[in-house]
Write a structure and sequence with these properties.
about 625 residues, alpha+beta, five-stranded antiparallel beta sheet, four-stranded antiparallel beta sheet, 8 helices
Length: about 625
């Protein structure tokens, strides 16, 4: 996962060090990094990016992470100048301003507005209106607007550059997409021109679009924001309809899973960055608890809120500097809720526990009554997955659970699937590489299947897909293309003795039994990240959520290859390397490179397939600082 230091950064560091002010900035940044950050990043532990990866990031991205992103807790005691020093030290480039409103993170290209007035939003019968397409979260498009035979002729029609871009939703000729750099767009799905744009809304969620009389146009779209609020907009105009109150009092709580609209209620999942506090001896780890907040669709007012950890928060022990620790905590809900219409219940998948205090709420699938918020059932699959950053069996930080586990929790939404015999099952995939089938009425575990070796960044990462016959699970196990040696293999052997080596790829399962129908390893193919040196390691982990249509499953890999698989056999029927070329984008970026394919995967709508190349705007694992949204159509027309 390393990204080599470029010569530009080396020269910049030499110039900075040559001036007294620059040398002082570097010294301050180095001291803060060595005191607060080095334990997790040098060498890198689990999720944490290593020094080479951090060095490849623009300064603004580092300051953003310390100010309001995943490292907010670690940066909370730093002044703007100190954050700037850290960013300068790590990147080797001057951080021009610590004011987030002046960051250049989202200011890429030009917002080219459509030349004609915006048409009314109309359903086409081939729409992708939410992250899971339907309320059950199946990620299956039954009316794609193209055939299996035409998939072989897909070519890029247009591209649009942005930083930190997520996954789109599509209604008719309208496309909606948010990003982590503060811009929420409505684009023309045929050409990529901008219908409207809203600034200063930082979100990593996929917009949901619904018909609603709440909006003057009759169409409403909503997203979850990083500041733990949800916001609704008129989808036709971009005008804000309402913004919720902050939905959690924990300062590092946030929203990463797309809110789900069910009838007149918005279901919002809450997660947090508290997992990153393992190395801070003064932090009273931990108190955050994953939850679902139900909001009134008309007003954004909270109706109920349900925490998925049922046990009370209590003091546990003192850490080595005498700070009182507490628990249980964790069970963050990283992904979108789904809806079981038959039983009128919401289903969520929960993350790991942050402490060693016992809880039944972590690493679980939880069913919640839609109307009241009462938990109907909760099925836990791992009661010992206790983890915070900087904790391994060989490196125990001051706040680490004892003993620390591996962090192989649920990061993907479950799927509600109706079997031919009449039974409904809840399908879920875990980073452990395990896939589960549970009874929708009771939560009883029906079957378990290991589809890959699993790891903290392996197994099922972002999601699965299901058509009427099969469940499709992508495996993110990490393999180095240069020598086929699993990255982190020693860790895998230590925690998962007896399992086979990493197996990135796509697996089709029988939803009724978990039986493997076919399994296709991610092909070894030529790979070059255009924005990185030729020596950079390519990773073929398949962590992107797959997307399905009749006869075809689409999936992307971290090496930048986007593929279509035959749904019945797993044979690759089409492939395109999004990193093999650069793009002249609709918003006037010349020579924009693609990057890794990760995150929520493709949207299939109206005869087009939309996917984001260069996940998250970072320079790690095939990122390049800017993402590019690619719109494929038959013959590029």
């Amino acid at each position: 996962m390393r990204r080599w230091l470029g010569l530009g950064a080396v020269f910049a560091l030499e110039i900075l060090a040559a001036s007294p002010a620059g040398a002082q900035t570097l010294k301050v940044g180095e001291t803060i990094f060595n005191t607060n950050c080095k334990a997790c990043h040098d060498p890198a532990i689990n999720r944490a990016p290593d020094r080479a990866t951090l060095r490849a990031l623009p300064p603004a991205s580092i300051i953003d992470a310390l100010t309001g992103g995943v490292m907010q807790r670690m940066g909370s005691g730093l002044s703007p100048a100190e954050k700037q020093s850290v960013a300068t030290y790590l990147s080797g480039l001057p951080a021009k301003d610590a004011d987030q409103s002046k960051y250049p993170i989202g200011a890429v290209g030009e917002d080219v507005m459509c030349a004609t007035p915006n048409p009314p939003i109309r359903l086409s019968g081939s729409d992708w209106t939410s992250v899971g397409v339907d309320a059950a979260g199946r990620r299956f498009q039954p009316r794609p607007g193209l055939t299996r035979a035409q998939v072989r002729r897909l070519k890029v029609k247009w591209s649009f550059a942005m930083t930190g871009g997520g996954a789109p939703t599509v209604v008719g000729d309208w496309l909606f997409i948010a990003n982590r750099s503060g811009k929420f767009y409505a684009l023309d799905s045929r050409s990529g021109c901008v219908r409207w744009v809203v600034d200063k809304v930082v979100s990593r969620t996929t917009p949901m679009v619904v018909r609603s009389s709440v909006a003057p146009s009759g169409w409403l779209t909503l997203i979850g924001l990083r500041n733990r609020t949800a916001r609704a907009f008129d989808a036709q105009t971009g005008k804000t309809l309402w913004t919720s109150d902050e939905l959690d009092t924990n300062p590092v709580a946030t929203i990463t899973g797309t809110p789900l609209v069910v009838k007149d209620t918005v279901m919002v999942p809450l997660t947090s960055g508290e997992e990153g506090t393992g190395g801070d001896p003064k932090y009273p780890c931990c108190s955050f608890r994953g939850s679902v907040a139900a909001l009134d669709l008309a007003t954004g007012k909270q109706r109920w809120k349900t925490y998925v950890i049922p046990e009370p928060l209590k003091p546990t022990r003192l850490n080595k500097v005498g700070t009182q620790l507490q628990g249980p905590a964790g069970a963050a809900i990283w992904s979108a809720p789904v809806y079981d219409r038959v039983r009128d219940q919401i289903l969520v998948a929960t993350g790991d526990s942050y402490t060693d205090a016992p809880t039944k709420g972590a690493d679980a699938i939880v069913a919640i009554d839609r109307a009241s918020g009462a938990i109907r059932w909760s099925t836990q699959v791992d009661d010992k997955d206790n983890f915070v950053g900087g904790c391994t069996s060989e490196s125990v930080g001051p706040n680490c659970p004892l003993p620390p586990s591996l962090d192989v929790d649920f990061g993907a939404s479950p799927i509600v699937f109706h079997l031919k015999g009449g039974r409904d099952v809840v399908l879920s995939g875990q980073k452990s590489g395990l896939v589960y089938g549970m009874d929708a009425a009771s939560g009883k575990l029906l079957w378990t299947r290991q589809v890959s070796a699993g790891s903290p960044l392996g197994g099922v990462e972002w999601g699965m897909a299901a058509d009427g016959q099969r469940l499709y699970a992508a495996a993110a196990d990490t393999v180095n293309l240069q020598n086929e040696v699993p990255a982190g293999d020693s860790t895998k052997r230590r925690f998962w003795p007896g399992l086979s080596p990493a197996r990135p790829g796509l697996t089709a399962l029988d939803p009724a039994t978990g039986k493997v129908i076919w399994q296709t390893p991610t092909p070894v193919a030529p790979c070059r990240y255009a924005a990185q040196p030729a020596s950079a390691t390519c990773i073929r982990a398949q962590s992107q959520a797959p997307s399905a249509m009749p006869g075809v499953v689409f999936g992307g890999a971290m090496d930048g290859w986007f593929r279509a698989y035959d749904a019945a056999t797993g044979k690759v029927i089409w492939a395109d390397s999004t990193t093999s070329r650069t793009y002249d984008t609709v918003n006037h970026i010349k020579g924009q490179p693609g990057g890794s394919l990760d995150g929520m995967g493709a949207a299939i709508a109206g005869g087009r397939v939309f996917v984001m190349s260069g996940f998250n705007g970072t320079a790690s694992i095939g990122g390049n600082g800017v993402n590019v949204l690619l719109a494929y159509s038959v013959d590029g027309k």
